[in-house]
């Protein structure tokens, strides 16, 4: 019995002693030992997959049974364009010896370029000039689809995306786009390989109690989503929408009845309650998770409306202040540009206004006969030491004097030429008896005119200004005399 066990063990060790363990990248090739060249080997070559599939005959009596198993001159027996399904054990059976030997154990590696994107993004694959066509194999499947062919643009078997000037472009990536994208040459050899992974997207949403929540996206269109809800802090989830339709009242919780609606590009929850805070997940018809929405619900508060009202009031106040400031600037400019005419008159008599101003004064000096007055007349042409009484003007400087006009006498120039100033005497009765006598001061722009009897010197003590001109208007004569 012991001898039988030792013999069996030696047979097993001897049969497995020549087994090679190979790890080769996807799309590459595997070479067999020289003794399995069709000229030398007349037996059968078998393949047993690792996934438990049926045994497959690759070569029989030097004839290949698989188009990928070739015998190029000078290179031996090759199995090209390796795929995931080629992982397994290869063995040969010799008809002459009736012995079956395990040749090698192959493991096909995924050496592709890995890309990771998020749901809803746009991804573009660069297309080489040597690429003849593009094929797509979804993850965890062996079904391959031709997406694009250079020689025949209509040879596409479907799929998402399209060729642009930048390359093969896929808009709104979804979990269904996960898989391998292989570019191949004309001889069907692999040029490049990309493994694309699409992960779910995350987004936070905020809403108020009795408000409205819209979870929508342009990439949601055309997909029958399944939506589940997990309350904040809870482990269990509740299905609200299945394959694009809201569940019946028997299946949905009472808290969501008549409040959730399916849109073309998302869902609508109205009105929002405080118990709606939590996580909403969106899965495609294949069960792949695509989008996770986290909702935070705030209590309804009057402070929100108060803040809005306060903002409106503040905006109105600012606008009013701006308008007022602008108007004040315009009014100030008008006041500065317009001169102010000041008229001096008897305090007991009305003064002429700007609309009834007398005509332009005649600066000629006219001697007149003075009527009799009850008081002595002021005849001095120099500065007087006696202060002016009530109702009388202050003493003028030496260059000017008061000249009454007699309408009965013609205008005669004063002796000494135009520059001379006669000094007639005027009685106080004459100045006070005429109710229409008016004194007008021109040449200065002043804000206000004090009474003639005041102690203010007005323009007599002001330097660097033009001389003041005092006009005496006698209404019954129609003559205005100026000094």
Shape descriptor reads elongated
Strand order of the largest sheet: 1-9-8-3-4-5
Strand content: 25-35%
Structural class per helix/strand content? Answer: mainly beta
**End-to-end distance, in Å?**
159 Å
Spans of at least 5 consecutive residues whose pLDDT stays below 50 are 1-17, 340-345, 351-358, 360-473, 479-483
Helix content: 10-25%
Domains, number: 5
Radius of gyration: 57 Å
Largest sheet, described in full?
6 strands, mixed
Q: Count the helices. How many? A: 3
Q: Could you tell me the number of beta strands?
A: 30
The chain-level mean pLDDT equals 73
Report on this structure.
The strands form seven sheets. Strands 1-9-8-3-4-5 form a six-stranded mixed beta sheet, with no helix packed on it. Mean pLDDT is 73; it is low at 1-17, 340-345, 351-358, 360-473 and 479-483. It contains three helices and 30 strands. It starts with a helix and ends with a strand. It is mostly beta strands and 483 residues long. The chain has helices spanning 2-16, 302-337, 428-433; strands at 20-25, 30-31, 44-49, 56-60, 63-64, 69-70, 78-79, 88-94, 99-109, 113-118, 123-125, 133-138, 145-149, 162-163, 168-170, 179-184, 190-199, 201-208, 213-216, 226-231, 238-242, 245-246, 260-263, 266-269, 278-283, 289-298, 342-345, 438-442, 469-474, 479-482. It folds into five domains: 13-109, Immunoglobulins (Immunoglobulin-like, Sandwich), CATH 2.60.40.10; 113-199, Immunoglobulin-like; 201-298, Immunoglobulin-like (Sandwich); 302-336; 339-483, no CATH class.
